[in-house]
């Protein structure tokens, strides 16, 4: 272990712990956040992103909340943190287009060996809800028309804090259980200003806002099995309703939204001495939430992903597996009665930073995705990078 | 990666994602539904505070006004060139005579033709702060009327003509005896009274000075001019206006204030235009008030006291109405430090102008009952001049009994509560 390696191993867990105590904000990355409860943001690491995975069935180290069974294979204490910036260009009818960018931290987690298994604390993103919209009109105040500008701002997200435990069952099997709590808040504000832009008038701005705290529970059970050249895994997430509780100053009411049971399954097969092929799928029917929504539409969030990993690639004298993938996932909410899908092509690599006796003590995984989200009236082309840093043995 | 850390909130390209757009509606609330107990109080400040004088003789058939002045100590030393041409201070000055120079405000003065002015020396002790047309001194336990109303008997000093087309000054020639008499700063009867002799005009005196001709001992062949400023000035006038029985009065010297109780209605109903777009009765909440203003309709002020320059109105909360007229006032509700400016024609040639005095924040607090700090909101407002006193002229508005009574103008923005999607 190098001197730098020691410093890295000692420092990163402290950063992870600090992040766990003060959950980092997760910011918007799509205009589809305006629909329903927002856009799902999966708590995936760089390897899963590069392979087009939905977060289950990957061999090796995995500490994602979507794969409780895989957690048991860690064996030693492990921490991970992922960052995911994205750059989005959008087009809409009427020659309207633009771009924006943002960053989020979709996954922070620590696993530690306990009583023959692995216990974990995971903070993952779940729904991204931030967006704003502006509408310009006129109002007649008796002295002629006055320009009005309505600015609606929605700022918030739903995250998921999980406590999990997983343990091996024999040589081939493992099982895990995760209890999660939904957290986060949503601040919705509508402002109407009067007069021309940058022109201070004597009519005050109208402000109507509300703040809701998100609460809810989830239970995720999963298992995985390892065979000679094959790993298979499956999980099911049973959520409670997602409750939005209004603050005391909020005129709006409390609401409750149905969340779907989410089934995930994945498998990875070794087809050659250095080639892994991965496939995974998610089934989630969000349509039950339709009855809870007032101005948007809910559909299914099913999806699948395929990927391949070339494990013998090296970079700078270190193992640096190359990965490629494709993914297609439905977005659960839309502003119109239609289905919206997200399709991505991805590539990436892993890099072992520190290894001892065959155990990787520090490594990073990087992915770049080129994706498309499209509906009848809105198309988003985006680049999304995901960088995750994993450390072990602390 | 560095640019990836910059957060930009995505802006939806159309208003399909804009929930619950509000409506904007204007409502005029009649006097009886929002205000009561209008009263006019006078006597705030003194004409002395203005620092200007007023002259009038039978102006508008009624107003007589005269200005009283006192002079400060004359200069005792001056730097002069002696007979050798060297400049040095000379404290042995012989005052030979001088001139009383009066500077007039050509805008506020009503005359366009030359007028004749008379300068006299007062002979009775007078108190600069409390002096009035009838009384030379009018303080607590000391009320002394003039022997002759209007400033008492004076010793005539000089006359002069002021032609506004020729300039803004009038010059009175003084002999050395009068100059010497006005040098006494300890005798309260010493002072000057300036009158206008021609009837039908009202003049505004900006300031006055004494120009003194002096001979320095170091160069007796030379006459130098020294300046002595006034130590104070005030004006007295008659008749003193009576409080209006049915209207709003603001300004004057001493100043007038109008106070009224305000109650922003919590429920709006029975207004057809409003109820056509909003479900009535509508319970108003403070956040819905985007604009609130008291709307007053100007009316002609008594001719003698009509403004000739802009009037600046202010509105302040009355912190304790029961203590009126001495109640302290809160901070101004008008954002501009210059108040609400009204052109003088609104109170003379072109009355009937609606003047809005905005107090949006106060209206919200009044409806809520407390301000944003939780303090109770005063229910009484005072309408007054930004500077008290500012001018002998005052503003007049229609009162509650008039067809053009004051009303409350509200611009309301009404929308549903923001809900979850």
**How would you characterize the largest beta sheet of chain B?**
9 strands, antiparallel
Question: What is the arithmetic mean of pLDDT of chain B?
Answer: 91
CATH superfamily of chain A: Outer membrane protein transport protein (OMPP1/FadL/TodX)
Q: Report how far apart the termini of chain A are.
A: 13 Å
Form type of chain A: elongated
- Write out the strand line-up for the largest beta sheet of chain A, numbering strands in chain order: 2-3-4-6-7-8-9-12-13-15-18-20-21-22
Descriptive overview:
The complex is a heterodimer of chains A (394) and B (421). With 394 residues, chain A is mostly beta strands. Chain A has helices at residues 3-21, 46-50, and strands at residues 39-40, 78-92, 96-114, 117-128, 131-140, 145-169, 173-194, 206-226, 230-239, 242-246, 255-257, 262-272, 275-284, 297-298, 303-310, 314-315, 318-319, 322-331, 333-334, 340-356, 359-374, 379-392. A 14-stranded antiparallel barrel of chain A has the order 2-3-4-6-7-8-9-12-13-15-18-20-21-22. In chain A, strands 14-19 form a two-stranded antiparallel ribbon. Chain A has a two-stranded antiparallel sheet with strand order 16-17. Chain B folds into two domains: 21-45 and 243-414, Jelly Rolls; 63-238, no CATH class. Chain B is built from three helices and 26 strands. Chain B has helices at 176-181, 272-275, 360-368, and strands at residues 23-29, 35-44, 53-59, 63-71, 78-81, 87-90, 93-104, 115-122, 135-139, 142-145, 154-162, 169-175, 192-196, 201-216, 224-238, 247-251, 255-262, 267-268, 282-283, 289-297, 311-318, 340-342, 354-358, 380-385, 394-398, 407-414. Residues 1-5 of chain B have low confidence and may be disordered. At the A-B interface, strand 2, strand 3, strand 5, strand 6 and strand 7 of A face strand 20 of B.
């Amino acid at each position: 272990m190098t001197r730098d390696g020691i410093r890295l191993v000692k420092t990163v867990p402290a950063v992870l712990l600090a992040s766990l105590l003060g959950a980092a904000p997760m910011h918007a990355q799509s205009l589809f956040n305006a629909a329903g409860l927002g856009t799902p943001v999966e708590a995936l690491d760089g390897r899963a992103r590069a392979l087009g995975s939905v977060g289950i069935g990957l061999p090796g180290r995995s500490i994602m909340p979507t794969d409780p069974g895989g957690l048991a294979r860690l064996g030693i204490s492990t921490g991970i943190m992922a960052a995911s910036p994205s750059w989005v260009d959008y087009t809409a009818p009427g020659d309207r287009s633009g771009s924006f960018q943002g960053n989020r931290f979709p996954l922070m987690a620590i696993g530690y060996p306990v009583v023959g298994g692995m216990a974990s604390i995971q903070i993952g993103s779940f729904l991204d809800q931030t967006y704003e919209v502006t509408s310009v009109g006129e109002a007649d105040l008796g002295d002629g028309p006055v320009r009005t500008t309505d600015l609606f701002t929605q700022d918030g997200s739903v995250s998921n804090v999980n406590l999990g435990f997983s343990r091996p069952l024999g040589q081939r099997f493992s099982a895990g259980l995760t209890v999660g709590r939904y957290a986060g808040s949503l601040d919705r504000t509508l402002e109407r200003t009067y007069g021309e832009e940058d022109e201070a008038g004597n009519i005050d701005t109208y402000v109507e806002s509300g703040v809701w705290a998100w609460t809810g529970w989830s239970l995720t059970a999963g298992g995985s099995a390892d065979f000679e050249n094959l790993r298979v895994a499956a999980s099911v997430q049973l959520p409670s309703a997602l409750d939005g509780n209004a603050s005391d100053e909020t005129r709006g009411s409390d609401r409750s939204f149905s969340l779907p049971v989410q089934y995930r399954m994945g498998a990875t097969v070794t087809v050659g001495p250095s080639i892994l092929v991965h496939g995974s799928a998610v089934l989630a029917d969000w349509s039950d939430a339709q009855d809870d929504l007032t101005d948007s539409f809910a559909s299914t969030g099913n999806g699948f992903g395929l990927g391949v990993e070339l494990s013998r690639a090296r970079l700078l004298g270190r193992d640096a597996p190359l990965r490629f993938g494709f993914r297609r996932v439905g977005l659960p909410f839309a502003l119109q009665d239609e289905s919206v899908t997200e399709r991505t092509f991805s590539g990436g690599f892993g890099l072992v930073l520190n290894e001892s006796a065959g155990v990787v003590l520090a490594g990073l995984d990087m992915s770049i995705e080129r994706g498309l989200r499209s509906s009848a009236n809105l198309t988003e082309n985006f680049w999304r990078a995901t960088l995750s840093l994993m450390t072990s043995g602390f | 990666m560095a640019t990836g850390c910059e957060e930009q909130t995505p802006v939806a390209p159309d208003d399909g994602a804009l929930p619950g757009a509000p409506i904007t509606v204007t409502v005029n609330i009649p006097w009886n539904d929002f205000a009561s107990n209008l009263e006019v109080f006078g006597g705030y400040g003194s004409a002395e505070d203005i620092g200007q004088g007023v002259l009038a003789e039978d102006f508008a058939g009624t107003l007589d006004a005269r200005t009283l002045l006192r002079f400060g100590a004359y200069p005792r030393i001056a730097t002069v060139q002696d007979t050798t041409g060297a400049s040095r201070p000379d404290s042995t000055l012989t005052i030979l005579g001088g001139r009383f120079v009066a500077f007039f405000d050509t805008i506020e003065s009503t005359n366009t033709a030359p007028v004749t002015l008379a300068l006299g020396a007062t002979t009775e002790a007078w108190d600069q702060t409390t002096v009035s047309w009838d009384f030379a001194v009018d303080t607590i336990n000391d009320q002394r009327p003039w022997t002759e109303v209007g400033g008492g008997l004076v010793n005539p000093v000089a006359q002069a003509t002021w032609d506004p087309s020729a300039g803004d000054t009038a010059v009175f020639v003084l002999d050395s005896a009068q100059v010497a008499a006005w040098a006494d700063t300890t005798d309260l009867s010493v002072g000057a009274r300036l009158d206008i002799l021609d009837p039908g005009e009202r003049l505004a005196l900006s300031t006055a000075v004494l120009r003194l001709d002096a001979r320095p001992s170091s160069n007796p062949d030379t006459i130098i001019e020294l300046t002595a400023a006034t130590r104070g000035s005030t004006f007295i006038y008659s008749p003193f206006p009576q409080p209006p029985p049915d209207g709003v009065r603001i300004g004057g010297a001493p100043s007038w204030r109008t106070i009224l109780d305000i109650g922003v209605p919590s429920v709006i109903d029975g207004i057809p235009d409003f109820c056509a777009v909003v479900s009535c009765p509508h319970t108003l909440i403070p956040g819905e008030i985007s604009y609130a203003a008291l709307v007053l309709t100007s009316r002609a002020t008594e001719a003698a006291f009509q403004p000739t320059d802009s009037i600046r109105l202010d509105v302040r909360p009355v912190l304790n109405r029961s203590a009126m007229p001495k109640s302290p006032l809160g901070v101004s509700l008008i954002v501009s430090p210059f108040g609400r400016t009204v052109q003088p024609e609104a109170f003379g040639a072109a009355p009937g102008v609606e003047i809005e005095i905005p107090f949006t924040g106060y209206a919200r607090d009044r409806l809520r009952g407390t301000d944003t700090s939780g303090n109770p909101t005063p229910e009484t407002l005072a309408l007054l001049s930004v500077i008290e006193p500012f001018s002998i002229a005052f503003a007049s508005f229609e009162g509650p009994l008039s067809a053009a009574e004051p009303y409350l103008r509200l611009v309301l923005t009404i929308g549903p509560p923001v809900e979850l999607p």
